[in-house]
Structures are given as C-alpha cells and as structure tokens.
Amino acid sequence: MKASRLVLLAVGAAALFAGAALAPRAWAHGDVQPQPVNTDGLAPLGEEWKEENPYRGDPKAIAIGASGYNQNCARCHGLEVISGGLAPDLRHLEKGKEGDEWFSQRVQGGAIINGMTKMPSFAGVISQEGLWAIRSYIESVHVDE
Ligand code: HEC
C-alpha cells in the first residue's frame, strides 16, 4: 500500500475516534440506566421539593434507601457508602438540614464540572420519595471525618 493511502487511513481513523470521544454522553461512567426506586409504604410527598428530609431516621425509608443507593449511587460513591475514591465519600456528608441542602442540589442538578458530567441529575428519574429515602440511608451510616 502506498504511503499516502496509509496516511489517509490514519487520518480517517483519528477522525472517527475523535467523533466517538466528543459524542455527548449523559453518563460519565458508561451507559448505566438509572433505576426507579419503589417507595411503596412511604408517605407520599407531593410535587413540591422539601427543604429537609421528611423521613429522617425512619427505618422503612432507610431500608428502601439502601436498595435505591446500591442501584443508583454505589457504582460511583462505593458499596455501603464507602468510597473507593471515584467520588466523594458520602458518609461524611453533613447531618441534618445542611447536608439535606447539599444533597438536594447534587441529586437534582447533578455535578457538571468544566462541561463534563461527573454526576448525572436524578431529577425526574428517581421520585422525591426515593431520593429522600436514599438520603435517610446515607445519614444512617454517617461518620465524622
Ligand atoms: C457517575 C458517577 C456518579 C453517580 C452515579 C452518582 N454520583 Fe454523586 N457525585 C459524583 C461525583 C464525581 C461527585 C463530586 C462532584 C464534585 O467534584 O463536586 C458527586 C457528588 C455528590 C454529592 C456531594 C458530595 C460532596 O461531598 O460534595 C452528593 C450528595 C452525591 N453525589 C449524591 C449522590 C447520590 C445520592 C447518588 C445516587 C442517587 C449519586 N450521587 C450518584 C459521581 C456520581
């Protein structure tokens, strides 16, 4: 094969590769689909987002949240909320209302840093009930830094 054709081939391959790398992706770590959380048995919360976790300390919410967490958050934040370093260790998330506020911002807005989706938004994907259940679980395993 002539050298000029080889060069063309290489350029073509590079363009393909760049195209694939630039394609918009909603998920930073592979195309894992978010899982809705079954919140049967928890008091419904309505449309408006609560400022504070309405289920704090509720054992049923904690159990539901554990499962919701493992299906949706563990692949980045670590199984049993013990981070392997890919994403912050949520055991250190502040307890109470302040932690609730930061939690709400991140689960609703996700984390887009320098145009890269480091964490997807879960708004409209997991219900408010499901997200507060996950927050209840995270707070139940809180450890001080
Ligand atoms: C694709 C990976 C990924 C998934 C899935 C993910 N997160 Fe995150 N999350 C991150 C990263 C990365 C950050 C740190 C962003 C930054 O640098 O501020 C973060 C930050 C957070 C924070 C703020 C922590 C802090 O100390 O600032 C909270 C709260 C949080 N995530 C909750 C969740 C919950 C709850 C879920 C599941 C419903 C979840 N995340 C799913 C990657 C992920």
UniProtKB/TrEMBL annotation:
<keyword id="KW-0249">Electron transport</keyword>
<protein>
    <submittedName>
        <fullName>Cytochrome c-550 PedF</fullName>
    </submittedName>
</protein>
<dbReference type="Pfam" id="PF13442">
    <property type="entry name" value="Cytochrome_CBB3"/>
</dbReference>
<keyword id="KW-0479">Metal-binding</keyword>
<dbReference type="GO" id="GO:0020037">
    <property type="term" value="F:heme binding"/>
</dbReference>
<keyword id="KW-0349">Heme</keyword>
<dbReference type="InterPro" id="IPR036909">
    <property type="entry name" value="Cyt_c-like_dom_sf"/>
</dbReference>
<keyword id="KW-0813">Transport</keyword>
<dbReference type="GO" id="GO:0009055">
    <property type="term" value="F:electron transfer activity"/>
</dbReference>
<keyword id="KW-0732">Signal</keyword>
<keyword id="KW-0408">Iron</keyword>
<feature type="signal peptide">
    <location>
        <begin position="1"/>
        <end position="23"/>
    </location>
</feature>
<feature type="domain" description="Cytochrome c">
    <location>
        <begin position="60"/>
        <end position="142"/>
    </location>
</feature>
<dbReference type="InterPro" id="IPR051811">
    <property type="entry name" value="Cytochrome_c550/c551-like"/>
</dbReference>
<dbReference type="InterPro" id="IPR030991">
    <property type="entry name" value="c550_proteobact"/>
</dbReference>
<dbReference type="GO" id="GO:0046872">
    <property type="term" value="F:metal ion binding"/>
</dbReference>
<dbReference type="InterPro" id="IPR009056">
    <property type="entry name" value="Cyt_c-like_dom"/>
</dbReference>
